[in-house]
TrEMBL record:
Ca(2+) 1 binds at D66, V69, G71, D73, S75, E86. CDD domains: secretory_peroxidase (cd00693). This is Peroxidase. It comes from Prunus yedoensis var. nudiflora. Removal of H(2)O(2), oxidation of toxic reductants, biosynthesis and degradation of lignin, suberization, auxin catabolism, response to environmental stresses such as wounding, pathogen attack and oxidative stress. These functions might be dependent on each isozyme/isoform in each plant tissue. SUPFAM superfamilies: Heme-dependent peroxidases. GO terms for biological process: hydrogen peroxide catabolic process; response to oxidative stress.
Amino acid sequence: MEACKGLLLVLVLMVMQGRESEGQLAENFYSFTCPNVEFIVKQAVSTKLSQTPITIPATLRLFFHDCFVEGCDASVMIASANGDAEKDSTDNLSLAGDGFDTVIKAKQAVEALCPGVVSCADILALAARDCVVLAGGTAFSVELGRRDGLVSQASRVAGNLPEPNFNLDQLNTMFAKHNLSQTDVVALSGAHTIGFSHCGRFSDRLYNFSSNSPVDPSLDPGYAKQLMGACPINADPVVNLDPETPDTFDNAYYRNLVAGKGLLSSDQVLFSDSASQPTVIDFANNPGNFNGAFITAMRKLGRVGVKTGDQGEIRKDCTTFNS
């Protein structure tokens, strides 16, 4: 009997390892090869957060930018001596270094216990989830099994990330390329309930909106005045995306949109456009609906363009290809 149990365990291990070699995404992907990976990553993220609160928005934004270019494969992590990697593109220069450092520190912690097993892409996905939870958001399971990409080029970024002045049609078109719906667009935009933006990305709404109105009329007048005080002409400091609860992952973002306090045009348009307005109102009034939609959208985002099996590699260092 004991021999039969031993044989069964060996067969189970072979099946699990075979599945991992094929790279199918699964929540329990590392259950045999690195069972404590989620705990290790969360500890690393928590430690980084204790050092700087920028960790949360920086890591979450890094995940979005990674998945929208080449797919969720940690290609955004690659550093190039020639300055021509994905992270070097104009659209990615504003990515905060603390996001990169969070993933690097988590990778080092994982490598110490499970060398050569867990991809940087999976660590980034886990870290993004942990940031949501540590900021007060709802916990959710992350599918794992991604491989790290083998391509990272600055020239492939342009046109693949949403711009701050996008209208709803432009947002829907870009997200649809990744099998993300309009509801996903609205839900993922809710990540702007934390973090900040440089004034240069929205100052046209304050000083040069149109020939008829220098200030965007969709902005609440009091909020516009507040923004002008924070963003003098030709200055480029940063402003919180959520003026109400900037460090908490909640549904205040949607209440802000209803009140005319969406910082970016691509934020406020979600309420201004009649096609998406009902979803914004629903999320503003029902935090549970927002949390559920956000989790669904994050899991869908995490499947975008993933490399599995022999399509990628498990990098030893997240910033460098193995060869």
